[in-house]
């Protein structure tokens, strides 16, 4: 008996229930000359869907999954269930950490062998018609050995163990044809400055990333290497606080042409930004790679990882992605959890169906906004003065020359409306 027995594959039906059928996500519908599936590039996250036990900061496990256990038999049963869900949803990609798909061994060598066996098992399922791998990554945060970080750890043995783990995960991602490899520094930060050497830890983190890039290119991995920014939680501060911080880090270590970002909505909110801000900034810096689509509860101060349900927010996010040219190797990964009271198999299906519909509605609204063009016309009009010859020459000149212009032309700037309320009303026409 399979965990999802009795649940039929989800099909598009504009009059369906939005739980076991899509009302808005028609993968074959064409918008802006591309299939909706190829715009959105949905992926299911293995960790929250199949490894998460349903706990929170105040309570432990609530889920009872038949594959929960520490044996290879359990790991394969988990993979079977995962590919059953992939088939039901029909989404084109999935993502995983090493610890999601294999049991921890008594030694690193045993863990690596477990990973390699599971990669072969999963690869067989992919060859039989399963989805592709959007990205792989390493779990460098759950085990107690990483309590003081991985690359930034004060113990060089932990740095070495993390390096070995990442190497094995890049190998796994390469073997499965992954289109990206992600680094998330879950504990790469500090809890107190009283025992932290910021300069040393930053150098360690930078050198670690250089080693990752060098190895990936050495073995011929031609996918995109991504960093996922996050400001805090579980640590007080992390070195990859937000997109701007990550870009400065990449510039410092000469990696801005090698590494892009995987932006998560929930992390953007924790950093005090909107999702669309982080996406627009990443695009402007040339480092937008992929996204984790989830949301936080605005009444909670922690990363609740809920499935998206806010179409206007999602529309503004996809507007920035489309303005940047859309995804290449990246996609929309649902780094989202069920609520701990959602115990039934159909709950996991319904969560993804609802989220995929929200994303489809948001992307179609973003397409309509772009095709209407009024936002972009008004944006261009706001900066039109900078298109003039004199303005361009001023940027190439000196401070004294700019000051002289004011005297020569008797410049008295006249403020112009930013039109914010009108711009918001334009957006509201489409969402």
From TrEMBL:
One of its GO terms (molecular function) is xylose isomerase activity. Its EC number is 5.3.1.5. InterPro entries: Xyl_isomerase-like_sf, Xylose_isom_bac, Xylose_isomerase. GO terms for biological process: D-xylose metabolic process. One of its GO terms (cellular component) is cytoplasm. It is found in: Cytoplasm. Binds 2 magnesium ions per subunit. The keyword Isomerase applies. Mg(2+) 2 binds at residues 264, 267, 303, 305. Its cofactor is Mg(2+). Gene3D superfamilies: Divalent-metal-dependent TIM barrel enzymes. Belongs to the xylose isomerase family. Homotetramer. This is Xylose isomerase. It comes from Jannaschia aquimarina. The gene is xylA_1.
């Amino acid at each position: 008996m399979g965990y999802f027995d009795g649940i039929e594959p989800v099909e598009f039906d504009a009059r369906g229930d939005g739980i076991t059928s899509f009302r808005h996500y028609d993968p074959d519908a064409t918008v802006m000359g591309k299939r909706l599936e190829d715009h959105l590039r949905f992926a299911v996250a293995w960790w929250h869907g199949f490894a998460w036990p349903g706990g929170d900061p105040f309570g432990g496990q609530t889920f009872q999954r038949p594959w929960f256990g520490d044996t290879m038999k359990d790991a394969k049963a988990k993979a079977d269930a995962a590919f059953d869900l992939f088939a039901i949803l029909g989404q084109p990609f999935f993502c995983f950490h090493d610890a999601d798909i294999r049991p921890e061994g008594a030694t690193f060598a045993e863990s690596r062998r477990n990973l390699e066996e599971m990669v072969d098992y999963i690869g067989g399922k992919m060859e039989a018609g399963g989805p592709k791998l959007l990205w792989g990554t390493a779990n460098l945060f759950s085990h107690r050995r990483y309590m003081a970080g991985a690359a930034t750890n004060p113990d060089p043995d932990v740095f070495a163990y993390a390096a070995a783990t990442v190497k094995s995960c890049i190998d796994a991602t390469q073997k499965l044809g992954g289109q990206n490899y992600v680094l998330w520094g879950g504990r790469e930060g500090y809890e107190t400055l009283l025992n932290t050497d910021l300069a040393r830890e930053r150098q360690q983190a930078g050198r670690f990333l250089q080693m990752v890039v060098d190895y990936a290119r050495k073995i011929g991995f031609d996918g995109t290497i991504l960093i996922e920014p996050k400001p805090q939680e579980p640590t007080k501060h992390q070195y990859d606080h937000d997109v701007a911080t990550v870009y400065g880090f990449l510039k410092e270590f000469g990696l801005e042409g090698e590494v892009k970002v995987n932006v998560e909505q929930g992390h953007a909110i924790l950093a005090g930004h909107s999702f669309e801000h982080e996406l627009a900034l990443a695009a402007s810096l040339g480092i937008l790679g992929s996204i984790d689509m989830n949301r936080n509860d605005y009444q909670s101060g922690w990363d609740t990882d809920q499935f998206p349900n806010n179409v206007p927010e999602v529309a503004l996010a996809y507007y920035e992605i489309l303005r940047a040219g859309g995804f290449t190797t990246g996609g929309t990964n649902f780094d989202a959890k069920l609520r701990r009271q959602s115990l039934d198999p159909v709950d996991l299906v319904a969560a993804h169906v609802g989220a995929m519909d929200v994303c489809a509605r948001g992307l179609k609204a973003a397409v309509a906004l772009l095709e209407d063009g009024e936002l972009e016309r008004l944006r261009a009009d706001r900066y039109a003065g900078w298109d003039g010859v004199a303005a361009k020459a001023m940027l190439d000149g000196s401070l004294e020359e700019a000051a002289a212009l004011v005297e020569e032309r008797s410049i008295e700037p006249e403020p112009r409306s930013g039109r914010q309320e009108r711009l918001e009303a334009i957006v509201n026409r489409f969402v």
